[in-house]
Amino acid sequence: MKTSKPTFALLLTILLAFPILTNSQNKSADIIIYGGTSAAVIAAVEAKKSGKSVIIVSPDIHLGGLTSGGLGWTDTGDKSVIGGLSREFYHRVFMHYNTKEAWNWQPKEAYGNKGQGTRAMDGESRTMWIFEPHVAENIFEDFIDEYKIQVDRDEWLNRENGVVVKQGKITSFTTLNGKTYSGKMFLDATYEGDLMAAAGVSYHVGREGQGVYGEEWNGVQTGVLHHKHWFMSDISPYVVPGDPSSGVLPRVSAENPGEKHTGDDKIQAYCFRTCMTHNDANRLPFPKPENYDPLQYELLARSLATGRKDFFEKFDAIPNYKTDTNNHGPLSSDNIGMNYDYPEATYERRKEIIKEHEDYQKGFYWFVANDPRVPKDIQTEMQRWGLAKDEFTDNGNWPHQIYVREARRMIGHHVMTENELLKKRPTPNPVGMGSYTMDSHNVQRYIKEDGFVQNEGDIGVNTNGPYEISYGSLVPKKEECTNLLVPVCVSSSHIAFGSMRMEPVFMILGQSAAAAAVIAIDNKVPVQDVDYQTLKNDLEEKGQVLHK
Predict the structure, then answer these.
(1) How do the pLDDT tens digits run along the chain, 548 residues long?
(2) CA atoms within 13 A on the CB side of 365
(3) CB 372: neighbour CB atoms within 10 A?
Protein backbone atom coordinates (compact mmCIF):
# COMPACT_ATOMS: atom_id res chain seq x y z
CA MET A 1 0.00 0.00 0.00
CA LYS A 2 1.27 3.47 -0.87
CA THR A 3 1.64 6.02 1.92
CA SER A 4 0.92 9.67 1.27
CA LYS A 5 3.85 12.08 1.48
CA PRO A 6 3.67 14.82 4.11
CA THR A 7 2.73 18.19 2.75
CA PHE A 8 5.18 21.12 2.83
CA ALA A 9 2.94 22.85 5.39
CA LEU A 10 3.07 19.81 7.66
CA LEU A 11 6.88 19.56 7.37
CA LEU A 12 7.20 23.26 8.19
CA THR A 13 4.99 22.83 11.22
CA ILE A 14 7.14 19.92 12.47
CA LEU A 15 10.40 21.82 11.92
CA LEU A 16 9.13 24.90 13.70
CA ALA A 17 7.80 22.89 16.61
CA PHE A 18 10.95 20.81 17.16
CA PRO A 19 13.30 23.62 18.29
CA ILE A 20 10.68 24.86 20.71
CA LEU A 21 10.51 21.44 22.35
CA THR A 22 14.31 21.12 22.36
CA ASN A 23 14.93 24.56 23.81
CA SER A 24 12.46 24.00 26.62
CA GLN A 25 14.33 20.86 27.67
CA ASN A 26 17.91 21.98 27.05
CA LYS A 27 19.28 25.00 28.86
CA SER A 28 22.73 26.51 29.09
CA ALA A 29 24.59 29.23 30.96
CA ASP A 30 28.14 30.14 31.86
CA ILE A 31 27.62 28.80 35.38
CA ILE A 32 25.13 26.15 36.46
CA ILE A 33 24.46 25.93 40.21
CA TYR A 34 22.77 22.84 41.59
CA GLY A 35 21.00 23.38 44.91
CA GLY A 36 18.65 25.82 46.62
CA THR A 37 20.71 26.64 49.72
CA SER A 38 21.89 30.03 50.94
CA ALA A 39 25.23 29.30 49.23
CA ALA A 40 23.45 28.68 45.93
CA VAL A 41 21.66 32.03 45.97
CA ILE A 42 24.73 34.02 47.00
CA ALA A 43 26.88 32.27 44.38
CA ALA A 44 24.33 33.13 41.70
CA VAL A 45 24.30 36.79 42.75
CA GLU A 46 28.11 36.90 42.53
CA ALA A 47 28.05 35.32 39.08
CA LYS A 48 25.47 37.81 37.82
CA LYS A 49 27.29 40.80 39.35
CA SER A 50 30.41 39.59 37.53
CA GLY A 51 28.63 39.60 34.19
CA LYS A 52 28.09 35.88 33.72
CA SER A 53 24.91 34.03 32.85
CA VAL A 54 23.78 31.66 35.57
CA ILE A 55 20.98 29.20 36.29
CA ILE A 56 20.07 27.84 39.70
CA VAL A 57 18.75 24.30 39.33
CA SER A 58 17.05 23.69 42.65
CA PRO A 59 15.47 20.48 43.91
CA ASP A 60 13.86 22.68 46.54
CA ILE A 61 10.86 24.93 45.98
CA HIS A 62 11.88 27.28 48.79
CA LEU A 63 15.27 28.96 48.55
CA GLY A 64 17.71 29.49 51.38
CA GLY A 65 18.10 26.06 52.93
CA LEU A 66 18.42 26.20 56.71
CA THR A 67 18.75 29.99 56.77
CA SER A 68 15.13 30.26 55.64
CA GLY A 69 14.20 26.86 57.09
CA GLY A 70 14.10 27.74 60.77
CA LEU A 71 17.69 28.52 61.71
CA GLY A 72 17.03 32.15 62.58
CA TRP A 73 19.34 32.22 65.61
CA THR A 74 22.50 32.44 63.52
CA ASP A 75 25.63 30.61 64.66
CA THR A 76 28.20 33.28 63.93
CA GLY A 77 31.29 33.12 66.09
CA ASP A 78 33.37 36.24 65.37
CA LYS A 79 31.02 38.37 63.26
CA SER A 80 33.83 40.64 62.06
CA VAL A 81 35.10 37.94 59.68
CA ILE A 82 31.74 37.63 57.91
CA GLY A 83 32.03 39.86 54.86
CA GLY A 84 30.95 40.27 51.26
CA LEU A 85 27.49 39.18 50.15
CA SER A 86 27.08 37.08 53.28
CA ARG A 87 27.25 40.25 55.34
CA GLU A 88 24.96 41.97 52.84
CA PHE A 89 22.30 39.35 53.64
CA TYR A 90 22.45 40.17 57.37
CA HIS A 91 22.45 43.89 56.58
CA ARG A 92 19.19 43.36 54.70
CA VAL A 93 17.80 41.56 57.75
CA PHE A 94 18.62 44.65 59.80
CA MET A 95 16.98 46.95 57.25
CA HIS A 96 13.81 44.84 57.35
CA TYR A 97 13.51 44.97 61.13
CA ASN A 98 14.23 48.68 61.07
CA THR A 99 10.72 49.22 59.67
CA LYS A 100 7.43 49.43 61.59
CA GLU A 101 5.80 46.92 59.29
CA ALA A 102 8.21 44.18 60.44
CA TRP A 103 6.81 44.16 63.98
CA ASN A 104 3.29 42.84 63.43
CA TRP A 105 3.05 40.78 66.64
CA GLN A 106 5.57 42.29 69.02
CA PRO A 107 6.60 45.91 69.67
CA LYS A 108 10.16 46.48 68.52
CA GLU A 109 11.15 47.94 71.88
CA ALA A 110 9.91 44.76 73.61
CA TYR A 111 12.37 42.68 71.61
CA GLY A 112 15.21 45.16 72.02
CA ASN A 113 18.50 45.08 70.15
CA LYS A 114 19.26 41.37 70.36
CA GLY A 115 21.42 40.09 67.53
CA GLN A 116 22.40 43.49 66.16
CA GLY A 117 25.82 44.98 65.54
CA THR A 118 27.84 47.56 63.65
CA ARG A 119 30.87 46.80 61.54
CA ALA A 120 33.64 49.24 62.41
CA MET A 121 35.30 49.33 59.01
CA ASP A 122 32.29 50.70 57.17
CA GLY A 123 30.44 52.38 60.02
CA GLU A 124 26.90 52.42 58.68
CA SER A 125 26.59 48.80 57.54
CA ARG A 126 24.38 47.65 60.40
CA THR A 127 23.55 43.98 60.65
CA MET A 128 21.04 41.76 62.42
CA TRP A 129 21.77 38.10 62.98
CA ILE A 130 18.43 36.89 64.37
CA PHE A 131 15.32 36.69 62.21
CA GLU A 132 12.08 34.91 61.31
CA PRO A 133 12.20 32.19 58.62
CA HIS A 134 9.93 33.98 56.15
CA VAL A 135 12.04 37.14 56.40
CA ALA A 136 15.13 35.23 55.31
CA GLU A 137 13.27 33.60 52.42
CA ASN A 138 11.93 36.95 51.24
CA ILE A 139 15.45 38.41 51.22
CA PHE A 140 16.73 35.53 49.10
CA GLU A 141 13.82 36.00 46.72
CA ASP A 142 14.64 39.72 46.58
CA PHE A 143 18.17 38.82 45.48
CA ILE A 144 16.73 36.61 42.75
CA ASP A 145 14.38 39.34 41.51
CA GLU A 146 16.92 42.18 41.67
CA TYR A 147 19.55 40.31 39.70
CA LYS A 148 17.07 38.59 37.37
CA ILE A 149 18.43 35.16 38.16
CA GLN A 150 16.81 32.16 36.51
CA VAL A 151 15.74 29.56 39.05
CA ASP A 152 14.33 26.22 37.96
CA ARG A 153 12.67 24.72 41.05
CA ASP A 154 11.66 21.17 41.90
CA GLU A 155 14.33 19.88 39.52
CA TRP A 156 16.05 16.79 40.88
CA LEU A 157 19.35 15.59 39.49
CA ASN A 158 19.30 12.24 37.72
CA ARG A 159 21.94 10.71 39.96
CA GLU A 160 22.12 7.40 38.10
CA ASN A 161 23.25 8.51 34.66
CA GLY A 162 22.36 12.17 34.32
CA VAL A 163 25.83 13.70 34.68
CA VAL A 164 28.01 13.79 31.57
CA VAL A 165 31.74 14.10 32.18
CA LYS A 166 34.15 14.33 29.25
CA GLN A 167 37.91 14.64 29.57
CA GLY A 168 37.63 15.57 33.23
CA LYS A 169 34.95 18.22 32.75
CA ILE A 170 31.22 18.18 33.43
CA THR A 171 29.56 19.14 30.17
CA SER A 172 25.95 18.80 31.30
CA PHE A 173 23.56 17.18 33.70
CA THR A 174 19.97 16.07 33.32
CA THR A 175 17.18 16.16 35.89
CA LEU A 176 14.47 13.58 36.50
CA ASN A 177 12.10 15.85 34.56
CA GLY A 178 14.26 15.37 31.47
CA LYS A 179 15.78 18.85 31.41
CA THR A 180 19.45 19.10 30.48
CA TYR A 181 21.70 21.90 31.73
CA SER A 182 24.98 22.69 29.98
CA GLY A 183 27.59 25.11 31.29
CA LYS A 184 31.23 26.10 31.39
CA MET A 185 31.38 25.85 35.17
CA PHE A 186 29.28 23.96 37.72
CA LEU A 187 28.73 24.48 41.44
CA ASP A 188 27.33 21.84 43.78
CA ALA A 189 25.63 23.90 46.49
CA THR A 190 23.55 21.10 48.01
CA TYR A 191 23.82 19.85 51.58
CA GLU A 192 24.16 16.29 50.26
CA GLY A 193 26.80 16.69 47.52
CA ASP A 194 24.76 14.81 44.91
CA LEU A 195 26.27 16.48 41.82
CA MET A 196 29.78 16.07 43.17
CA ALA A 197 29.22 12.37 43.81
CA ALA A 198 27.53 11.71 40.47
CA ALA A 199 30.47 13.38 38.70
CA GLY A 200 32.84 10.83 40.22
CA VAL A 201 34.56 13.15 42.70
CA SER A 202 36.05 11.57 45.82
CA TYR A 203 34.23 12.08 49.10
CA HIS A 204 33.88 10.73 52.61
CA VAL A 205 30.87 9.94 54.80
CA GLY A 206 31.31 9.56 58.55
CA ARG A 207 34.12 10.21 60.98
CA GLU A 208 37.76 9.68 60.15
CA GLY A 209 39.96 7.92 62.67
CA GLN A 210 42.25 10.07 64.75
CA GLY A 211 45.31 9.10 62.73
CA VAL A 212 44.00 9.87 59.23
CA TYR A 213 44.79 13.59 59.42
CA GLY A 214 46.66 13.64 62.74
CA GLU A 215 43.75 15.12 64.70
CA GLU A 216 42.90 14.98 68.39
CA TRP A 217 39.12 15.36 68.18
CA ASN A 218 38.08 13.08 65.32
CA GLY A 219 36.63 9.58 65.49
CA VAL A 220 34.49 7.96 68.19
CA GLN A 221 34.30 10.10 71.34
CA THR A 222 33.12 7.75 74.09
CA GLY A 223 33.66 9.30 77.51
CA VAL A 224 33.92 12.85 76.12
CA LEU A 225 31.20 15.06 77.63
CA HIS A 226 31.49 18.61 76.30
CA HIS A 227 27.95 19.99 76.36
CA LYS A 228 24.79 19.19 78.32
CA HIS A 229 23.50 16.76 75.71
CA TRP A 230 24.27 13.63 77.69
CA PHE A 231 22.64 11.63 80.48
CA MET A 232 23.89 13.13 83.73
CA SER A 233 22.11 10.50 85.83
CA ASP A 234 22.21 6.72 85.65
CA ILE A 235 19.23 5.74 83.52
CA SER A 236 18.37 2.22 82.41
CA PRO A 237 18.00 1.66 78.65
CA TYR A 238 15.71 -1.34 79.10
CA VAL A 239 11.92 -1.52 78.82
CA VAL A 240 11.81 -2.79 82.40
CA PRO A 241 14.48 -0.78 84.20
CA GLY A 242 17.49 -2.91 85.03
CA ASP A 243 16.18 -5.97 83.17
CA PRO A 244 18.02 -6.65 79.88
CA SER A 245 15.67 -9.54 79.11
CA SER A 246 12.77 -7.06 78.76
CA GLY A 247 14.38 -5.59 75.63
CA VAL A 248 16.10 -2.33 74.73
CA LEU A 249 14.06 0.87 74.58
CA PRO A 250 13.54 2.57 71.20
CA ARG A 251 16.34 4.86 69.99
CA VAL A 252 19.04 3.05 71.93
CA SER A 253 21.62 0.98 70.04
CA ALA A 254 22.60 -2.37 71.50
CA GLU A 255 25.76 -2.37 69.35
CA ASN A 256 29.25 -1.59 70.63
CA PRO A 257 29.91 2.13 69.99
CA GLY A 258 33.44 1.46 68.76
CA GLU A 259 36.86 2.07 70.18
CA LYS A 260 37.62 5.68 71.10
CA HIS A 261 39.17 7.74 68.27
CA THR A 262 38.48 5.11 65.60
CA GLY A 263 36.64 6.06 62.43
CA ASP A 264 33.16 4.93 61.40
CA ASP A 265 30.48 5.61 58.83
CA LYS A 266 28.11 7.31 61.27
CA ILE A 267 27.07 10.98 61.10
CA GLN A 268 25.86 13.52 63.63
CA ALA A 269 22.13 13.74 64.29
CA TYR A 270 19.62 15.74 62.26
CA CYS A 271 16.55 17.63 63.45
CA PHE A 272 14.20 20.40 62.37
CA ARG A 273 14.75 23.91 63.69
CA THR A 274 11.15 24.62 64.63
CA CYS A 275 9.64 28.08 64.79
CA MET A 276 7.41 28.25 67.87
CA THR A 277 5.35 30.99 69.47
CA HIS A 278 3.48 31.58 72.73
CA ASN A 279 1.37 34.30 71.09
CA ASP A 280 -2.15 32.81 71.16
CA ALA A 281 -3.25 34.81 68.12
CA ASN A 282 -0.53 33.14 66.03
CA ARG A 283 -0.17 29.79 67.80
CA LEU A 284 -1.08 26.35 66.47
CA PRO A 285 -1.12 23.63 69.17
CA PHE A 286 1.44 20.90 68.57
CA PRO A 287 -0.05 18.31 66.22
CA LYS A 288 -0.15 14.67 67.27
CA PRO A 289 1.38 12.33 64.65
CA GLU A 290 -0.89 9.56 63.41
CA ASN A 291 1.68 6.92 64.41
CA TYR A 292 2.40 8.46 67.83
CA ASP A 293 3.95 5.98 70.27
CA PRO A 294 4.76 7.21 73.81
CA LEU A 295 7.32 4.43 74.27
CA GLN A 296 9.58 6.34 71.88
CA TYR A 297 10.01 8.97 74.61
CA GLU A 298 10.37 6.73 77.65
CA LEU A 299 14.00 7.79 78.07
CA LEU A 300 12.86 11.42 78.14
CA ALA A 301 10.35 10.66 80.90
CA ARG A 302 13.06 8.93 82.94
CA SER A 303 15.46 11.82 82.34
CA LEU A 304 12.91 14.47 83.36
CA ALA A 305 12.10 12.46 86.49
CA THR A 306 15.65 13.09 87.73
CA GLY A 307 14.78 16.75 88.31
CA ARG A 308 16.08 18.34 85.11
CA LYS A 309 15.13 22.03 84.83
CA ASP A 310 16.90 22.98 81.57
CA PHE A 311 14.27 21.82 79.09
CA PHE A 312 13.57 25.28 77.63
CA GLU A 313 17.19 26.40 77.37
CA LYS A 314 17.27 26.40 73.55
CA PHE A 315 13.96 28.11 72.90
CA ASP A 316 15.92 31.02 71.45
CA ALA A 317 13.85 34.17 71.01
CA ILE A 318 13.55 35.66 67.54
CA PRO A 319 11.31 38.65 66.66
CA ASN A 320 7.54 38.67 66.97
CA TYR A 321 7.26 36.35 70.00
CA LYS A 322 8.77 33.42 68.09
CA THR A 323 11.65 31.03 68.59
CA ASP A 324 14.30 29.15 66.75
CA THR A 325 14.00 26.01 68.87
CA ASN A 326 17.01 23.72 68.78
CA ASN A 327 18.03 20.43 70.37
CA HIS A 328 18.99 20.52 74.04
CA GLY A 329 19.61 17.75 76.53
CA PRO A 330 20.17 13.97 76.42
CA LEU A 331 16.94 13.24 74.53
CA SER A 332 15.52 16.13 72.55
CA SER A 333 14.74 17.08 68.95
CA ASP A 334 17.92 15.47 67.60
CA ASN A 335 16.94 12.07 66.23
CA ILE A 336 20.16 10.30 67.15
CA GLY A 337 21.21 7.33 65.04
CA MET A 338 18.35 7.47 62.53
CA ASN A 339 20.10 9.18 59.62
CA TYR A 340 23.17 7.09 58.83
CA ASP A 341 22.05 6.11 55.33
CA TYR A 342 20.71 9.56 54.39
CA PRO A 343 23.80 10.95 52.56
CA GLU A 344 23.83 8.27 49.87
CA ALA A 345 20.21 7.15 50.02
CA THR A 346 17.84 7.30 47.07
CA TYR A 347 15.41 10.20 46.92
CA GLU A 348 12.61 7.92 48.07
CA ARG A 349 14.61 6.64 51.02
CA ARG A 350 15.55 10.20 51.98
CA LYS A 351 11.86 11.12 52.01
CA GLU A 352 11.22 8.22 54.38
CA ILE A 353 14.04 9.36 56.67
CA ILE A 354 12.77 12.95 56.66
CA LYS A 355 9.21 11.79 57.42
CA GLU A 356 10.46 9.60 60.28
CA HIS A 357 12.34 12.59 61.72
CA GLU A 358 9.24 14.77 61.40
CA ASP A 359 7.04 12.20 63.14
CA TYR A 360 9.60 11.70 65.89
CA GLN A 361 9.97 15.42 66.57
CA LYS A 362 6.25 16.18 66.45
CA GLY A 363 5.68 13.26 68.81
CA PHE A 364 8.40 14.60 71.10
CA TYR A 365 6.60 17.95 71.43
CA TRP A 366 3.23 16.25 71.86
CA PHE A 367 4.63 14.01 74.59
CA VAL A 368 6.00 16.93 76.62
CA ALA A 369 2.77 18.91 76.27
CA ASN A 370 0.42 16.03 77.06
CA ASP A 371 1.93 12.96 78.74
CA PRO A 372 1.09 12.77 82.47
CA ARG A 373 4.61 11.57 83.33
CA VAL A 374 6.09 14.95 82.39
CA PRO A 375 6.68 17.16 85.47
CA LYS A 376 3.83 19.62 85.89
CA ASP A 377 5.94 22.78 85.70
CA ILE A 378 7.52 21.73 82.39
CA GLN A 379 4.23 20.55 80.92
CA THR A 380 2.38 23.72 81.88
CA GLU A 381 5.06 25.84 80.24
CA MET A 382 5.13 23.64 77.14
CA GLN A 383 1.37 24.00 76.70
CA ARG A 384 1.88 27.74 76.24
CA TRP A 385 3.85 27.04 73.07
CA GLY A 386 2.90 25.88 69.59
CA LEU A 387 3.90 26.24 65.96
CA ALA A 388 3.77 29.72 64.42
CA LYS A 389 0.80 29.93 62.05
CA ASP A 390 2.45 32.49 59.78
CA GLU A 391 5.58 30.41 59.08
CA PHE A 392 5.91 27.56 56.57
CA THR A 393 2.29 28.11 55.60
CA ASP A 394 2.37 25.63 52.71
CA ASN A 395 3.83 22.84 54.86
CA GLY A 396 1.53 22.65 57.88
CA ASN A 397 3.68 25.27 59.64
CA TRP A 398 6.52 22.76 59.77
CA PRO A 399 10.00 23.64 58.41
CA HIS A 400 10.52 22.72 54.78
CA GLN A 401 14.21 21.88 55.32
CA ILE A 402 15.60 19.22 57.65
CA TYR A 403 18.86 20.18 59.32
CA VAL A 404 21.41 18.18 57.36
CA ARG A 405 24.29 18.90 59.70
CA GLU A 406 26.62 16.67 57.74
CA ALA A 407 26.38 14.37 54.74
CA ARG A 408 29.07 13.79 52.12
CA ARG A 409 32.31 15.75 52.39
CA MET A 410 34.55 16.11 49.36
CA ILE A 411 38.13 14.85 49.47
CA GLY A 412 39.50 17.63 47.33
CA HIS A 413 42.61 19.53 46.37
CA HIS A 414 43.14 20.49 50.03
CA VAL A 415 41.47 18.92 53.06
CA MET A 416 40.71 21.29 55.93
CA THR A 417 41.38 19.69 59.32
CA GLU A 418 41.41 20.73 62.97
CA ASN A 419 45.10 21.55 62.50
CA GLU A 420 44.28 24.53 60.29
CA LEU A 421 41.35 25.58 62.46
CA LEU A 422 43.50 25.50 65.59
CA LYS A 423 46.30 27.33 63.73
CA LYS A 424 48.74 24.46 64.22
CA ARG A 425 49.68 24.85 60.58
CA PRO A 426 49.04 27.57 57.98
CA THR A 427 46.11 27.50 55.57
CA PRO A 428 47.10 27.86 51.91
CA ASN A 429 45.29 30.37 49.67
CA PRO A 430 42.44 31.51 51.95
CA VAL A 431 39.15 32.58 50.35
CA GLY A 432 37.12 33.20 53.51
CA MET A 433 37.13 32.71 57.25
CA GLY A 434 35.26 30.78 59.91
CA SER A 435 35.35 31.08 63.66
CA TYR A 436 32.60 28.98 65.24
CA THR A 437 33.41 26.20 67.70
CA MET A 438 34.22 22.80 66.16
CA ASP A 439 30.79 21.43 66.93
CA SER A 440 29.38 17.96 66.38
CA HIS A 441 26.02 16.87 67.72
CA ASN A 442 25.61 13.36 69.10
CA VAL A 443 26.19 10.47 66.72
CA GLN A 444 24.91 7.46 68.65
CA ARG A 445 23.11 6.41 71.83
CA TYR A 446 24.51 3.24 73.35
CA ILE A 447 24.63 1.07 76.48
CA LYS A 448 27.71 1.47 78.66
CA GLU A 449 29.49 -1.43 80.31
CA ASP A 450 27.75 -0.56 83.59
CA GLY A 451 24.37 -1.15 81.94
CA PHE A 452 23.23 2.48 81.74
CA VAL A 453 22.47 4.55 78.64
CA GLN A 454 24.72 7.28 77.26
CA ASN A 455 25.11 9.45 74.16
CA GLU A 456 28.30 9.69 72.10
CA GLY A 457 29.70 12.09 69.55
CA ASP A 458 28.83 15.49 71.00
CA ILE A 459 31.88 17.74 70.72
CA GLY A 460 32.52 21.45 71.23
CA VAL A 461 36.13 22.56 70.78
CA ASN A 462 37.00 26.25 70.66
CA THR A 463 39.08 27.29 67.64
CA ASN A 464 40.70 30.09 69.70
CA GLY A 465 39.77 32.78 67.23
CA PRO A 466 38.98 32.95 63.52
CA TYR A 467 40.70 30.68 61.01
CA GLU A 468 41.27 30.85 57.27
CA ILE A 469 39.55 28.52 54.78
CA SER A 470 41.57 27.31 51.81
CA TYR A 471 40.51 27.70 48.19
CA GLY A 472 41.70 24.12 47.75
CA SER A 473 38.85 22.90 49.94
CA LEU A 474 36.33 24.14 47.34
CA VAL A 475 37.77 22.27 44.35
CA PRO A 476 38.20 18.58 43.53
CA LYS A 477 41.48 16.92 42.77
CA LYS A 478 42.53 18.02 39.30
CA GLU A 479 42.53 14.50 37.91
CA GLU A 480 38.87 14.07 38.91
CA CYS A 481 37.11 17.22 37.65
CA THR A 482 38.35 20.61 36.43
CA ASN A 483 35.17 22.70 36.23
CA LEU A 484 33.34 21.97 39.49
CA LEU A 485 33.37 23.92 42.77
CA VAL A 486 31.78 22.68 46.01
CA PRO A 487 31.08 25.43 48.60
CA VAL A 488 28.88 23.38 50.98
CA CYS A 489 30.13 19.77 51.08
CA VAL A 490 33.63 21.21 51.32
CA SER A 491 36.80 19.17 51.52
CA SER A 492 37.28 18.77 55.26
CA SER A 493 37.49 16.27 58.07
CA HIS A 494 34.46 15.53 60.22
CA ILE A 495 35.61 17.66 63.13
CA ALA A 496 36.72 20.61 60.95
CA PHE A 497 33.39 20.53 59.12
CA GLY A 498 31.72 20.88 62.52
CA SER A 499 32.82 24.52 62.48
CA MET A 500 32.82 25.23 58.75
CA ARG A 501 29.19 24.08 58.32
CA MET A 502 27.69 27.36 59.58
CA GLU A 503 25.28 29.15 57.24
CA PRO A 504 27.23 32.47 57.10
CA VAL A 505 30.30 30.48 56.06
CA PHE A 506 28.37 28.67 53.34
CA MET A 507 27.38 32.06 51.92
CA ILE A 508 30.98 33.28 52.12
CA LEU A 509 32.22 30.20 50.30
CA GLY A 510 29.39 30.39 47.77
CA GLN A 511 30.52 33.87 46.75
CA SER A 512 34.20 32.89 46.64
CA ALA A 513 33.44 29.79 44.57
CA ALA A 514 31.46 31.81 42.04
CA ALA A 515 34.21 34.45 41.82
CA ALA A 516 36.74 31.72 41.12
CA ALA A 517 34.46 30.19 38.47
CA VAL A 518 34.30 33.55 36.70
CA ILE A 519 38.11 33.85 36.64
CA ALA A 520 38.42 30.27 35.37
CA ILE A 521 35.99 31.03 32.54
CA ASP A 522 37.70 34.28 31.58
CA ASN A 523 41.15 32.68 31.54
CA LYS A 524 40.02 29.33 30.13
CA VAL A 525 41.76 27.39 32.90
CA PRO A 526 40.78 24.58 35.24
CA VAL A 527 39.46 25.70 38.62
CA GLN A 528 42.59 24.25 40.20
CA ASP A 529 44.74 26.64 38.12
CA VAL A 530 42.94 29.88 38.98
CA ASP A 531 45.59 32.48 39.82
CA TYR A 532 45.27 32.95 43.55
CA GLN A 533 46.52 36.54 43.65
CA THR A 534 43.88 37.53 41.08
CA LEU A 535 41.18 35.76 43.09
CA LYS A 536 42.40 37.27 46.37
CA ASN A 537 42.37 40.81 44.97
CA ASP A 538 38.90 40.30 43.53
CA LEU A 539 37.47 38.92 46.79
CA GLU A 540 38.98 41.65 48.94
CA GLU A 541 37.59 44.33 46.61
CA LYS A 542 34.17 42.75 47.18
CA GLY A 543 34.46 42.86 50.95
CA GLN A 544 35.44 39.28 51.72
CA VAL A 545 37.55 38.93 54.85
CA LEU A 546 40.50 36.62 54.19
CA HIS A 547 42.77 37.37 57.14
CA LYS A 548 42.37 38.52 60.75
Answers:
(1) 333 444 445 444 444 444 433 457 899 999 999 999 999 999 999 999 999 999 999 999 999 999 999 999 999 999 999 999 999 999 999 999 999 999 999 999 999 888 887 554 454 578 999 999 999 999 999 999 999 999 999 999 999 999 999 999 999 999 999 999 999 999 999 999 999 999 999 999 999 999 999 999 999 999 888 888 999 999 999 999 999 999 999 999 999 999 999 999 999 999 999 999 999 999 999 999 999 999 999 999 999 999 988 999 999 999 999 999 999 999 999 999 999 999 999 999 999 999 999 999 999 999 999 999 999 999 999 999 999 999 999 999 999 999 999 999 999 999 999 999 999 999 999 999 999 999 999 999 999 999 999 999 999 999 999 999 999 999 999 999 999 999 999 999 999 999 999 999 999 999 999 999 999 999 999 999 999 999 999 999 999 999 98
(2) 28
(3) 7
Q: What is the residue type of 272?
A: F
Cβ atoms of 247 and 238 within 8 Å: the answer is: yes
Overall pTM > 0.90: yes
SS percent in the chain: helix, strand, coil, step 5? 30, 20, 50
- CA angle at residue 35 from 32 to 37, to 5 degrees? 125
Q: What values do phi and psi take at 438, rounded to 5?
A: -70, 105
